[in-house]
Specification:
By secondary structure, the protein is of the alpha+beta class. The chain has helices at residues 19-26, 71-75, 77-93, 158-162, 168-189, 191-199; strands spanning 9-16, 34-41, 59-66, 99-102, 106-109, 112-122, 130-137, 208-212, 217-225, 231-235, 238-242, 246-248.
Length: 249
């Protein structure tokens, strides 16, 4: 193990409704960053309020992070967290060739969804106070395909695909150390090096994908992620930058 990072707290629970909800309850008293991990979640959630299934042995944690500045700047931590997840997974498995990062906040293993990230913030604009980075990883088992949205990337697990067995608490050690390093890079040098590193692991770069919002959808060639974290697609009407959407292959 790489050791617990200086300045980060650790709060481990046997069971909780959601580590994101626990982070919201702890935010008022938090003086520094703290990881909140639960062995079991009874009301976990994903993007757009969707339920997040959590079979036994899987990883669920939230990093409660004091922040300042705009919500758009804070949202770039999704890329910081993605890189930390990638590094932790490579450290756990010794495999760098099987993982890819799917915009805006998923980690893929051999094309299946292994992990997801969900950001929630307290405050708006310059008064932003805390950011909660919720992370779920299918370490031991994947939810049934029937439990995910139609057309979504099918879920996979680390154990099922690679035979790797790692306890959630041990994975938290790897993830916390990796996140601290990328957070230091982000706060020191800005988004540019984070963006470049993320792009080097991007899934379906240069391929045709579809970005779907609640209002419309855009299909085009995945060109890049721009300096604001937007997905940029080359379409028949030119380059289109998309701030938030679900991506389908």
């Amino acid at each position: 193990m790489t050791g617990w990072p200086d300045g980060y707290g650790r709060h481990v629970l046997q069971s909780v409704d959601s580590t994101l909800s626990e982070a919201a309850r702890m935010a008022a008293d938090a003086s520094g960053p703290v990881w909140i991990m639960a062995e079991q979640q009874t009301a976990a959630r994903g993007r757009r309020g969707r339920p997040w299934a959590m079979p036994a042995g899987n990883f669920a944690a939230t990093l409660l992070l004091p922040v300042s500045g705009s919500a758009s700047d804070a949202a770039l931590r999704s890329f910081v967290a993605s890189l930390a997840l990638h590094e932790a997974l490579v450290a756990a498995t010794g495999r760098a060739d099987v993982f890819a990062l799917k915009w805006p906040n998923d980690v893929l293993l051999r094309g299946g969804k292994l992990a997801g990230i969900l950001l929630e913030s307290a405050g708006q604009g310059p008064s932003l106070r805390h950011l909660s980075i919720g992370i779920g990883v299918n370490l031991a088992a994947a939810p049934a395909v029937s439990e995910v949205e139609a057309g979504a990337v099918p879920p996979v697990s680390l154990k099922g695909e690679l035979g790797t067995v790692i306890a959630p608490a041990d994975f938290l050690e790897l993830l916390a150390a990796a996140y601290a390093r990328f957070e230091d890079q982000f706060t020191t040098y800005g988004f540019a090096p984070i963006r470049a590193a993320w792009m080097s692991h991007a899934a379906r770069l240069g391929q045709v994908i579809t970005a779907r919002t609640t209002r419309d959808e855009t299909t085009g060639t995945f060109a890049e992620v721009d300096g604001a974290g937007n997905l940029v697609l080359e379409t028949s009407r030119g380059r289109v930058a998309i701030a938030a959407a679900d991506v389908y292959f």
